[in-house]
Every structure is written in structure tokens, then in C-alpha cells.
Amino acid sequence: QILGREGEILNAVTLMQELAAEAGEPADEVSDNAADHLGVVLRTSKLKGVAHSLKGVRAARLFDAEGNLVTTEPAYVSNAQLSPDELGKLRQFRPVTHYFAEARSADLFWIVPDEDGGASRTVPLLVVAIPLHRQDRARLFGVAQFILAGEGIAAEFAALDRNLLQHALLAFVGGGLIIVASLGWAFRRLQQTNRLLTERTTNLLRANHELTL
User: Fold this and answer.
1) 45-67 tens-digit pLDDT
2) How many other β-carbons are positioned within 10 Å of the β-carbon of residue 90?
3) DSSP string covering 164-175
């Protein structure tokens, strides 16, 4: 749900930019070339204040409708391909989001920036692929893929894990108390039953003894 939310937010921002770009062009002059929409991708990547997790866009890739890489920003971003499963979802105009908790900078950039602290350093990354299409969603003409810093998502996941752990501990403690109380009640009933059985056995032995006399 968290990853899906991030994809929907970025998809909405990209669509807003697409509609703004289309508003100034006649309908028959709107380009279907994915490379012509790189400006939209770059404008979208600058809108870092839309959501907390969108801060820190690291890179962007632009693909055509067949999933072939067209261009990247910056130029030293490594090549990538879209899988058939991803393309299937994008052709249904659904954003595709992936989270990598420990991604190496060397796998993202041909030349690792100095601020990344070395090629072997691992960082959390959020990769969001956005379908590019006209307002009428007639067909997919390209895919914009954003690589964002994933520290915000990592923090949300950590908070979610803490909440789940707290809920699990509460459920464990509450369930344990219920089990202990149930077992205590059952043992008390068992002791009462054993005491009654002992009394009846004693009375029966006394009656047999008196009968014998």
C-alpha cells in the first residue's frame, strides 16, 4: 500500500505535467514520440515537494512504448530494461513501483557521484515507472522511470515494523493472559472434581464397611 501510494502520487504529477503540455498544443500536433516528452519527465522530477518520499530524485530513464531505453538523465545512469510483466501493467496505465532496501550505487550509475560515498555503498532506492499517454488514454507512447532516494520509505517501513511488533506483543501478552486465566479456571474445576470424587469414594468405602459389619 505504501509503495502503491508513492506510484499513484508520482503518476498524478506526471499526468498533470502532460495535460499542461497538451493544453498549449493543437490535438493533432501533440507528439507521440517518447523522446519529446523528456522535458515532462525532467519537470516532474523537480517537483520534490509533492510528497516527503519524492524528495531526492536521483535519476530518470525514458523508455518507448516497447520498453526500449530512449535516454537517461543524467547521462551516466546505467542502462535498464522493463520486464514483460511491468510493460503489461504500464499498458493498462498503471504505475509500477519497486523498493530496494540495499541498492549499490555502482548498479545505478556508470560513474558514482562523490556524495554517494563509493561504489560499494548501499542505499535504499525507490524505482517508479509511470505510463506516458494522452489525456484520452488512447495508447501508451512511452514510460518515464524515476529513481528516488528511499530513505523516506525505509523510515515508513521501519515505523510499520515497530507498530506490527507492538501489536504482536500486545496480542501475545493478551492471549497469554487469557490462556493462563482459562487454564487456572480449568485446573480449579479439575481440583473441585477430584475433591468431590475423593469424598464420594471415601463415603462409598465407609458404606461398604458398614454394610459388611
Assistant:
1) 544 333 334 456 778 888 888 88
2) 24
3) HHHHHHHHHHHH
